[in-house]
Amino acid sequence: MTGYRKWVPLVAFILLGSALTYGLAKPDTTNIRSKMIGASVPSFTLPPATAGLPGLSSSDLATGQPHLLNIFASWCVPCVAEAPQLKAIAQAGVPVVGIAIRDRPEALARFLARNGNPFRAIGADDMSQVQMAIGSSGVPESFVIDGRGRIVQQVIGPINPEDVNGLVAAVKAAR
Amino acid sequence: MRRLVLALALVAAPLRADSDLPPAPLADTQLPDPKQEAQAQALMETIRCLVCQGQSIADSNAELAGDMRAMVRQRIAAGEKPAAIRAWLVRRYGSWVTYDPPLDRVTWVLWAAPVLFLAAGLLVARSSFRRRRA
Asked: What is the ipTM of this complex?
């Protein structure tokens, strides 16, 4: 064992140790991206989630007009923080539709009365089945859907004020 | 005073991060057919919870995990094969969602690692034995 060869195990150990330490130290990515981006919205029909607003079905999303689909719930705290941004997006002329996860009609009505109602329709997903079908893993999440009902983009977590203009442009571009 | 504070703490409502809907009917109820239930249970143990991420949906108390268990049981009861249900979930969330990852371009190292380590060990052993004999 001469020359450089005796250093091989040590170098290998240091490399392995650094790789493992890096893996432990780097921040955990907890966002799970939907693999359905580029695919059509799976077919579904959801009943109205609250009085006075229609329910939502996949055929409502393939009418030739792009939509912003917001997955939310009245019991979700970040959804309250997101409400002003959804309002701004709706005021910019973007049709916003919602899927309410495991919600009660009266709780949802209170949520909309308090935080404003940017939604044209809200479907009630009481067992998260449509949420799973679309590849969403939490609330709030938003999906840009093009005019043919294809999923173009996913936003995980609340929409922040600085995201509003970009999202409006993305929906309007998704003809 | 302290007692009062403690009593109040007991009845105070915590900030909710969960809905108040009851769990889906099949989330915590076994299927009547034991064979189907065994199939569902085996599948649930290898599907990762999307909320708590380190647990399988069989072990997790998250509401979404309950809804995923209900979905698995419903589909098994309807006669769907476990492999098809797993594929349905992988299509939506990627291989990440299964604890039984398929062999592909990204995961082959995982499957080959034991063989590679054994080969490396044999090489090291061979060279050190040879040295001693010399």
From this structure: 0.85
